[in-house]
């Protein structure tokens, strides 16, 4: 069943658990890679940290192997990073300077997580970085979630992507997902501000995370 509320291109998919969600997410990555390659473009994908890492690390490599796809030409980047200042030679920000001619990089796919407070990447509720309009990567030195020093893609980049998929699993995300997906708040949470201008917005949830939702969702019971 397709969602009938919210932005036209938003789809919310619910899986019984992260074990079913992971292969579907890996499949989505491969589909987007094929679509980019079919259009003659290099596939650019931005990945987030947190609980998403375990899901991707478990399910993406076998999917790539069984599809006999070569990821050698993919541009893999991080949606945020928690360690070094942007001037550092090892800074992940460098990865985002490889989009010649584009003021705002347009990713084929960004895979984002969402914290129980509604943050995504390292964009936190109420933080001035939510107002950033110029920078594509910004530093934050006062992250409320440790560690305090991070860098993150900004909203202009997130909202320029061709597709954004949020992944959220577990009961600790249930209350904030209701606010993000069903709320109409005056000051939306960071994750609710991600509305790709001309791209698609997907949500991959497990049942624990989706348990408070009343909007129509696509239920996936088996692989
Ligand atoms: O701090 C971060 O948190 C979010 C959400 O992480 P989770 O463990 O609650 O899933 C993550 O997407 C982001 O990359 C990370 O820096």
Automatic annotation (TrEMBL):
Q: Does the UniProt entry include the keyword Hydrolase? A: yes
The record's catalysed reaction(s) read: 6-phospho-D-glucono-1,5-lactone + H2O = 6-phospho-D-gluconate + H(+)
Name the UniProt key words of this record, in alphabetical order.
Answer: Hydrolase
EC number in record: 3.1.1.31
Q: Which GO terms describe its molecular function?
A: 6-phosphogluconolactonase activity
Annotated GO biological processes are:
carbohydrate metabolic process; pentose-phosphate shunt
UniProt domain Glucosamine/galactosamine-6-phosphate isomerase: residue ranges: 17-97, 102-203
Q: What pathway does this protein act in?
A: Carbohydrate degradation; pentose phosphate pathway; D-ribulose 5-phosphate from D-glucose 6-phosphate (oxidative stage): step 2/3
Say which enzyme class the record assigns: hydrolase
| Superkingdom of the source species | Eukaryota
Q: InterPro entries under this entry?
A: 6-phosphogluconolactonase_DevB (IPR005900), 6PGL (IPR039104), Glc/Gal-6P_isomerase (IPR006148), NagB/RpiA_transferase-like (IPR037171)
Pfam families listed in its UniProt record: Glucosamine_iso
Which NCBIfam families does the entry link to? pgl
The text of the family note is: Belongs to the glucosamine/galactosamine-6-phosphate isomerase family. 6-phosphogluconolactonase subfamily.
Function according to Swiss-Prot or TrEMBL: Hydrolysis of 6-phosphogluconolactone to 6-phosphogluconate.
The molecule here is called 6-phosphogluconolactonase
Protein source organism: Aquila chrysaetos chrysaetos
Q: Name the gene.
A: PGLS
